[in-house]
What we know:
By secondary structure, the chain is an alpha/beta fold.
Amino acid sequence: xxxxxxxxxxxxxxxxxxxxDRADLAAYLAMAxxxxxxxxxDIGCGTGTLALSLAASGRSVIGVDPAAATLRVARTKPxxxxxxxxxxxxxxxxxxxxxxxxxxxxxxxxITDPADWSASLRGIHTALRPGGRLVFETRDPAxxxxxxxxxxxxHRVTEIAGVGEVQSWVELLTVHGPLVRFxxxxxFAADGEVLTSDSTLRFRERAEVAESLRENGxxxxxxxxxxxxxxxxxxxxAARPE
Length: 242
């Protein structure tokens, strides 16, 4: 089940306004060019920002997400008809023979159960053609990014057309081994409604990620730094061997 931030209709509708800076996606668009990927599978596509950008460049794109609310938003955007939208996750993929599969943002870390992570990797492996690539990001646990997840550092007020003023902030709840729980809060000035969404991410070590990829049939070709967040993220480039 998706977290409320993606499943609640009111939150899904304002997601893009709150996350308007998607400089992180530029690296994925560049890799689609680098690998000459004609067919791209965007896993955890959310409101479709990356999927639509890839489709606009002439690629065949499949966007997959478990949250019905965010998919509804994606389907209303200009150019949405050029993308094949599927509700589900990496374990429910059809045999697509994609050239490239992506997991951006928190998608990989949101798969917290080790068995679910392995099943997801196997599902992606099946969906790729031989020689196809999987690229995704995961935070480096050594940076301990959760130290910044507090109201003082994250509180902001956003004016959203047709919605009004929305306050938002994030707060750390618990750190238990590799599992980090946190809560987002939103306050809508128009009617005073307060909504919250609790999430858990798994912070995997670099060696752990690499081993899990190999165990599930992938070859690890490279681990890059995230260009917009240097020193904070691992960007894994893996391939299904030919």
